[in-house]
Amino acid sequence: MNMAGFYARLAPSLIQIIELTLVIAGLAIIFFASRNAGGSKRRLAGFEYVEDRFRRLARRKILSVIVVGLLVVTLRVSLIPVLGIPSPRWNDEFSYLLAADTFAHGRVTNPPHPMWVHFESFHIIQQPTYMSMYPPAQGLVLAAGERLGHPWMGQLIITALMCSAVTWMLQGWMPPAWAFLGGMLAVLRLGILTYWMNGYWSGSVVALGGALVLGALPRLKKNPRVADAVIMAFGLAILANSRPYEGFVFSLPIASALTIWILGKSRPSFSVSFGRVVLPIVLVLAATGAGMGYYYWRVTGSPFRMTYQVNRGTYATAPYFLWESPRPEPVYRHAVMRDFYRWELAKFEEYGTLGGAAYRTWDKLVGSWKFYLGPLFTIPLLALPWIWRDRKMSFPIIASGFFLLGLAVETWTMPHYVAPATGLIYLLLLQCMRHLRLWRWRGQQIGIALVRAVPVIACAMVLLRLGAAAAHTQIEPAWPRGNLDRVAITRQLEATPGRHLVIVSYGPHHDVDWEWVYNPADIDAAKVVWARDMGAGDNQELLSYFHDRQVWRLNGDESPPRLQP
Fold first, then answer.
1. Does 11 have pLDDT greater than 70?
2. pLDDT tens track for 112-139
3. Beta strands 131-132 and 124-125: pairing type?
4. Which end of the chain is more exposed for a tag (fewer CB within 10 A), N or C?
């Protein structure tokens, strides 16, 4: 195998390989240094000073929550010259941006376009209205960003709020310094370089909802307050409007724990439990349910039929859950749509064999491990045996196991599907670190060095990746992210006088996740309209409708793509 081929095979895991190398090097240094206790103490004296300052700030709980959020915004904005502002690349992102554009213009949905068959694309419904198939939370986030100047500003702010919420959540479960450390680790792991920040996916808003729910639970049990009940209900509302199934599975153990507390031996008085906990949650969720019913009634025609159900019922054959059976294949008007949904079906059918099911399950686990933990955050998991005996962690462990079982029955699982449990992951991770800190080896408290190594290596990984990006050294996909060819052609046409219609075709080996045909909410008002090539005969009705536009052809698989009159 030549070097190019060897690098290509390593590329998908290169970041993890580099991180593993740093972890091994760090562990070797720690164990070597433990043989020279005096020298080690002198070299690590600086850590004690930093930790003292860190603890002082952490004791100011509200300030530390704010600092975490501001750090995300400050770091990522300052890195725009290096990382750029992301452009959409994946089908899901374009769908979320359609919802954002709709909401930003003050509409709940859009009427179907007369030429809608030419605009069909993934994760969008064209009938009975023209709208994203996803629940509205992420669209509202991006709409706020659009009103501020760019949809990505919404993603920036919600990711900062998510990291702050993780800090606040941890404060309800453990001492302030550990909670602050957890928030900082969330910044380093999730808040700067992941696709949650550098894209238009819903991971950050989902994780925010889950952290609010999980953080409110111990506060309500310790000192019931209406404010914390409202926060929990608000978190539940976010989950219901971002990832409903995963949010529901995540919420069931929390609802059970709250019910057991209200009805248990150490239960509060009825006036306290009902007036400060149950009633506020019920009122907020009732308002949420009414709002959701109105939204889906406007979009799908029924308050009980989600946009997701309309889209999957119209186009998809592969079911969402493994126990379901495939639906009959509909008549597709576009080959690329047929190929996409057949690809989905093939993934579902892999579960029909023992080997295929094992591979798909392993792929889910590895993907989530890479995103949330990686080699670095696996170090604290060495303390898991102690966690099993930690009574305070009984509920988080049970909730995590229940959530994993809920994910296991899904056909697909990507890291943002796990997002409701982000707070659970950090809670268990930080509690492991607390136990790990007490470890001794050869009479030395080596656990302290292991815990200190985690944020140090996390910072080193961020700096290494930023340095590689600035030097244009290819250790991961290039920055900025997105379909930059589509962005360049859009800018070219927007700078060209008149209005434009681009008819897109693809080659025989098209990547179904590399899509060009997406449009804003108001198609007729758009400077550039993207449509599918349906052949000379069927294209004619489109040309007649847009008779006042300059028409272009584009092969989306050509490299580089070129406009042709």
1. no
2. 999 999 999 999 999 999 999 999 999 9
3. antiparallel
4. C
Question: By the 8 A CB rule, do 418 and 330 touch?
Answer: no
Minimal CA–CA distance to 277: which of 210, 331, 220? 220
Select from 556, 552, 555, 554 the least CA-distant residue to 565: 552
Average pLDDT over residues 21-34: 85
- Tell the burial category of 469 from Cβ atoms under 10 Å away from its Cβ (0-12, 13-18, 19+): buried
- Residue 20 near residue 375 (C-beta atoms within 8 A): yes
Return the SS3 of 321.
strand
How far apart CA 469 and CA 482 sit, in angstroms, is 15
Question: Domain ranges in the chain?
Answer: 1-117+134-315+440-478, 484-555
DSSP strand pairing (500-505 vs 550-555): parallel
Burial of 545 (0-12, 13-18, 19+ CB in 10 A): middle
Mean pLDDT along residues 345-373: 93
- Residues 6 or more apart whose CB falls under 8 angstroms from that of 380 comprise 429, 430, 432, 433, 436, 451, 454
3-state helix, strand, coil in the chain (%, to 5): 65, 5, 30
Q: pLDDT, tens digit, for every residue of 436-471? A: 998 887 767 788 889 999 999 999 999 999 999 999
Question: Please, what is the average pLDDT of the chain?
Answer: 93
Bond preceding residue 508 cis, omega within 30 of 0: no
* C-alpha atoms less than 13 angstroms from C-alpha of 254 in its C-beta half-sphere: 27
3-state secondary structure 362-409: HHHHHHHHHHHCHHHHHHHHHHHHHHHCCHHHHHHHHHHHHHHHHHHC
The residues near 455 (Cβ < 8 Å, ≥ 6 apart) are: 181, 184, 185, 188
Q: pTM here?
A: 0.94
Residues 221, 172: Cα–Cα separation, whole Å: 10
pLDDT tens per residue, range 239-255:
999 999 999 999 999 99
Distant-in-sequence, close-in-space partners of 359: CB < 8 Å, separation ≥ 6 = 350
| pLDDT, mean of residues 500-508 | 96
Of 453, 435, 382, the C-alpha closest to 30 is: 453
